[in-house]
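Deviation from plan, reported transparently: magnesium ion complex.
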Amino acid sequence: MIEIKNLTKAFDTKKITDNLNLTIKENDFMVVIGRSGVGKSVLLKQVIGLIKPDSGKIMIDKQNIGKLDKKELEQVYKKCGYVFQFAALLDSLNVFENIGITLLENGVSSENVRPLVMEKIRSVGLSKDVLKKYPAELSGGMKKRVGLARTLMLSPKIIMYDEPTTGLDPITVKLIHELIQKTHTNLNATTLVISHDVEVFKYAKTVSMLHDGKIIYTGPAKTIWECDNPYIYQFIRGLGEGPIKAII
Ligand SMILES: Nc1ncnc2c1ncn2[C@@H]1O[C@H](COP(=O)(O)OP(=O)(O)OP(=O)(O)O)[C@@H](O)[C@H]1O
Ligand SMILES: [Mg+2]
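Because the crystal trials were delayed, the predicted structure below was used instead.
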């Protein structure tokens, strides 16, 4: 479970998260939506410790991550997997090395890492032929799968995805969403997806919307198309008129 309390982070004078509150319950599959540039990635990066908040509190499994020392923090983050917005593969390493990186860096031999990598590569629907390829030789959808396979190596209890389907064709979008759902069910993991893709509502349990530094709505994904919150209504239909002003 993740509890975010009064989280504030400003760049220059602009507050990107502004006293933001959000709770992601255990085993939830939550999607956080919001316009491009609203601060979704900044929110997620604060949760995973890549950006330090100015104030506020983030609790992961009842541990206040702002109050932990390096070792304790490592223990908490061991439970968390993060799939980056642009896959963030290392260009100089091949797919096998990218997926196995944590174990390989910790001195586990290639022979011992290989069966685990094979299992993960299969679970994300790729064939073993990709293992020798370098990131530059992969399509966008393949990179996202490899990024997910790398995260799955650590069997996380909490798994977070930043824009897992941006830039993919509709069929690959569906396959990636199915993969996220399968991973959610198989690992029994708490899942947090940052997205502006309305297709993800078919798979998620809860939807939250980030607007103007705050979570302005949280509700069930199943009935989101009937939701009469004006921000949600406008966002999911992409209407020009409504409470959210166009940024041009
Ligand atoms: N390290 C940083 N330093 C300064 N400003 C930043 C930094 N990271 C993000 N920002 C600013 O914070 C705002 C929110 O950025 P963020 O990447 O979180 O948006 P987003 O909602 O994820 O957008 P998208 O949907 O396009 O991914 C933007 O105005 C961005 O320029
Ligand atoms: Mg982003």
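The two ends are 37 Å apart (CA to CA). We consider this an acceptable substitute for the interim report.
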